[in-house]
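Work Package 4 report. The design task specified in the project plan requires that, given a folded chain encoded as structure tokens, an amino acid be chosen for each position. We show below one input record used in the internal validation round.
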């Protein structure tokens, strides 16, 4: 019986569409077909896209360490779990961010350190110079790029007390910095299975934004921060509500990398937050509150 998934994958190996070639390579990395060895080797020699080459390498490795098997008579799912359009889109985006940020950090970050050291040696008034401010600004951007890269890593499932994780992050980001009334509302302990590192990346940025919004208030009104959380059999969530200055414009724009209305900011914080949530199958949602302030919701599925 003809296997449509196999036939489609075989045809798409030479497609001009990058996504189709990736789906095809992933199929052969998960389904061994001994008659495809020469085709896979030919495609590997000419392929220029890094993540497709990696999938082809895996397919050839499995093929070279396998015994001949007949073609499956049932329809195999093309690309396994990656057949899902959203998962595939997320995978390609993570690959691109990881590769780009890796090159930037490897090539430029060390040179920035050398520039900083040289300026300190060559200029007596460096500490009070504009040059120092520019170097610090660049250093801040490199740190943001490193956080962005971390947000694309493969998520891990770790048993975590969400309530304690939240309190630890709030303590590090807010407590003892300024007088803010903080309210915690959620079950304690709150045990979940998720990736605490990616949750920390997202939630710490959310708390940092609320803190900055609250400290921007010029009125004598008490500053408040309400943090609540919960879990069901399907997902987990965290809500951050403040009575700060809120935001102006379309909230979706705030999640785009490099977009910020705050002086001295990289514009990476909200983008890192969304990227981290995307990576654990969740989302971040920002909205203004009519009475003043803003609400940010993080929600993700259990895994």
């Amino acid at each position: 019986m003809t296997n449509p998934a196999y036939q489609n994958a075989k045809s798409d190996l030479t497609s001009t569409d990058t996504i189709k070639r990736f789906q095809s390579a992933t199929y052969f990395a998960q389904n061994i077909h001994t008659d495809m060895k020469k085709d896979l080797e030919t495609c590997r020699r000419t392929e220029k896209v890094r993540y497709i080459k990696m999938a082809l390498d895996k397919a050839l490795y499995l093929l070279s360490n396998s015994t001949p098997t007949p073609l499956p008579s049932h329809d195999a799912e093309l690309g396994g779990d990656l057949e899902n359009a959203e998962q595939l889109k997320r995978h390609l985006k993570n690959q691109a961010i990881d590769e780009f940020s890796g090159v930037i950090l490897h090539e430029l970050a060390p040179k920035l350190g050398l520039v900083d050291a040289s300026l300190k040696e060559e200029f007596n008034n460096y500490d009070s110079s504009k040059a120092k401010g520019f170097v610090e600004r660049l250093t801040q951007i490199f740190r943001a790029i490193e956080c962005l890269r971390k947000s694309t890593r493969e998520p891990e499932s770790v048993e975590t007390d969400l309530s304690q994780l939240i309190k630890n992050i709030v303590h590090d980001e807010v407590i003892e910095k300024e007088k803010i009334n903080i309210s915690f509302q959620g079950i304690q302990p709150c045990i979940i299975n998720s990736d605490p590192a990616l949750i920390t990346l997202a939630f710490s940025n959310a708390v940092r934004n609320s803190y900055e919004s609250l400290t921007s208030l010029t009125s004598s009104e008490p500053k408040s921060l309400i943090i609540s959380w919960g879990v069901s059999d399907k997902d987990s969530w965290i809500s951050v509500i403040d009575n700060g200055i809120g935001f102006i414009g379309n909230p979706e724009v705030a999640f785009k990398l490099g977009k910020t209305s705050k002086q001295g900011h990289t514009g990476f914080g909200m983008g890192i937050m969304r990227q981290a949530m995307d990576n654990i199958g969740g989302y971040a949602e920002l909205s203004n509150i009519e009475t003043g302030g803003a609400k940010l919701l993080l929600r993700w599925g259990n895994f």
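The chain has three domains: 4-83, 87-150, 158-301. Validation will be extended to a larger panel in the next phase.
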